[in-house]
């Protein structure tokens, strides 16, 4: 009888400990989900808020224009080829976890192929707008055509607010055209550069990813680490 009493006490204690650990873990997840900013080193997916598609790339080259790696849009959320790394422009540095200020120049490196989101004065294959491609060597180094300005009205790039991405060299804005490709990338949307930020399909919002958060907190901000 004493054995069963002792066993029950130990069992209840262990269950209480497990419940406590799970509760703490869930609280951390809840806290992480409230992280406010996109930061240097963040890996994310970008959703076009009008078309409801994610910025995407893959090792498929354009059959016209530059012949560089194509950039498209997909409507599925679980495609690993839609992950992009937020990093500084070539030759610059940024502190890992530092929030990206509005009107800062950045590069977006495609995780799977290591090439950077890029644009230049080539025509896009479907709509005849400005072509958007991926470019760079195996180390992710390209040229000034990889630089984009984060255009937003806050102090920093917020996760809950759409931004526009303006190409530094050509002043074009990253956009969807609303058109879709045939084979070999059937159903994927065309991504282009357009001349006006007020044109259609130019708003992008940070979604799923690994968010790296600052060690030094901004005013009003709570300590948050990472989120998958």
From TrEMBL:
Statement: the UniProt record of this protein carries the keyword Ribonucleoprotein: no
InterPro entries associated with the record: MIR_dom_sf, MIR_motif
Source organism superkingdom: Eukaryota
GO molecular function terms listed in the Swiss-Prot or TrEMBL record: glycosyltransferase activity
Stored PROSITE patterns: MIR
Domain MIR intervals: 35-89, 97-153
Keywords assigned by UniProt, alphabetized: Glycosyltransferase, Repeat, Signal, Transferase
Record Gene3D superfamilies: 2.80.10.50
Residues making up the signal peptide according to the UniProt record: none
SUPFAM superfamilies: MIR domain
Any Pfam family hit: MIR
Record-given protein name: Mannosyltransferase
